[in-house]
Amino acid sequence: MKTITFLLIFLSVILNAQKRQFWTYPDLENKIGTHFPIENYKNSGGKNFNANDLKGKISFINFWSTHCEPFLEKLPYLNKLKEFSEEKVNFIAITYDSKEKVDAFLAKRPFNFQHITDSGQELRSYFTLLRNPMTFIVYKNENIEEITGAIEKTKFDILQKILKESF
Predict the structure, then answer these.
(1) Helix ranges (DSSP H) in the chain
(2) 94: which strand partners?
(3) How far is it, in rounded angstroms, from Cα 152 to Cα 72?
(4) Residue 42 and residue 117: Cα distance in Å, rounded?
(5) Considering the chain, what is the average pLDDT of its residues?
(6) Which of these, 149, 67, 86, 78, lies nearest to 111 by C-alpha position?
(7) Which of 62, 76, 139, 142 holds its CA 20 to 30 A away from the CA of 39?
(8) What distance in Å separates the CA atoms of residue 51 and residue 64, rounded to the nearest whole number?
(9) Which residues contact 52 (CB under 8 A, 6 or more apart)?
(10) Which tens digit of pLDDT belongs to each residue from 116-127?
(11) In this model, does residue 6 exceed pLDDT 60?
């Protein structure tokens, strides 16, 4: 009985993964298809976002830090994605780094997302292990549908295709 149950769960995960464009870490599989709790994060004015702030648009939610080398490599791709579909997509960057540290970083390098800083507590409560860089793609239904790590040329092309198909 245990073998059959395991086999059914395994097949379910495989079939679900085949619908998606990206493979994700096993500990993040449970996030796919769930609501991203944007309401737990504070905007630049210090107020919590509304749960409906992601409704009606695709959202790219990028988790990063100012000292993450793989993030620095993917930054040009993130900025290009924003240029490609700026008005039709929410672009949000979340970090545990302080606002001062992020502002100093942004003074040297463009990163044209809406920034949520000082989010260590929220990130620790949501993730068992936070891997930077990482991007959640939240569809118009407010559920996480894709999770990917560092973005390189191949992933960039896939992300552009996802965006084009969703408009």
Answers:
(1) 2-19, 69-85, 99-108, 120-126, 153-166
(2) 63, 116
(3) 11
(4) 8
(5) 82
(6) 78
(7) 76
(8) 22
(9) 142
(10) 999 999 999 999
(11) no
